[in-house]
Amino acid sequence: MDILPFLIDFILHVDKHLADFVASYGTWVYALLFLIIFVETGVVVMPFLPGDSLLFVVGAMCGVGLMDYGLSVALLLAAAVLGNQSNYTIGRLLGPKVFQWEDSRWFNKRAFNQAHEFYERHGGVTIVIARFMPFVRTFAPFVAGVARMTRSKFTFYDVTGGSLWVGGIVTAGYFFGNVPWVKHNLEKIIWAMIVIPGLLVMFGAWKSRRAEAAAAASRA
């Protein structure tokens, strides 16, 4: 199976794939979920994994007793925090030379630039806000490492953002994921989780570039 069609199908129908996995492999689902969240947040070349929708569906499955709520939140929070720490470390080791990289199959330069612009504008709070923004979520800790944010400061924002992201979305899925209307419109909700934050990031980046251009014109 081609990887791209499979990923798209997995993201849009994560509820069905996850339910099938639980039915076939039982508690191994926790290891799979840990790996997905860790890779999405910890490997800068994997920003397309289904973080938000996955957390929501996990909460819904906890709500009907197929998974344990406390264990799920604890493991996924650990994966999110450790993933960001890994990503930060990679960025810190690579340093500013990343700005010279060209767009490629393994490096989304546009996403990196958007995350960097967001970081320049909002500072450390970016690590918290970016948790709820696909693509930026993967690049924000990397950018913090490149910018040489201190480990202690980064860890504070990392744990805070991870707690709000994992705890908030899993809990939302727990209480609302099994509501008939939500189940019937889950694919649309997943699309909204992907598209709306992406549009907000692009608008913010456009606004930032426009402000910079206006400032440069006024100095000329």
UniProtKB/TrEMBL annotation:
- Top-rank lineage group of the source organism: Bacteria
Q: Where in the cell is it found?
A: Cell membrane
- The residue ranges of the VTT domain are 49-174
Keywords, alphabetical: Cell membrane, Membrane, Transmembrane, Transmembrane helix
Topology relative to the lipid bilayer, per the entry, is: Multi-pass membrane protein
**Protein name in UniProt:** Membrane-associated protein
Task: Tell me which family the UniProt entry assigns to this protein.
Answer: Belongs to the DedA family.
Organism the protein comes from: Sphaerotilus uruguayifluvii
Give the residue spans that cross the bilayer.
28-49, 55-82, 156-177, 189-206
Residue runs in coiled coils: none
Principal location: membrane
User: PANTHER family, per this entry?
Assistant: INNER MEMBRANE PROTEIN DEDA-RELATED (PTHR30353), TRANSMEMBRANE PROTEIN (PTHR30353:SF0)
Q: Name one Pfam family in it.
A: VTT_dom
